[in-house]
Amino acid sequence: MLNLTKQSLPADSEVLNLNSTSVFADNKKSHPCECEDLGRIILSSRDSRIASNPRMTSLCLQSDLLSICAADAPQFSSAVYNRGTQARKLQAGAAQSGRSMIEMLGVLAIIGVLSVGGIAGYSKAMTQYKINKTADQVTQIVGSVRTLYTSQKNYNGLGSGFDTDGDVLLRKAHAIPDEMWNTDNTIEHPFGGRVIVNTGDKKSSGDGKAFGIDLHNLPEEACMALATYDWGSGSSSGLIAVAVNTVSVAHMSRDGYSVGCSGSSADSYAVACPNGSSVTIPMPVNIAANACQEGDGNWISLAFY
Question: How far apart are CA 250 and CA 248, in angstroms?
Answer without folding.
Answer: 5
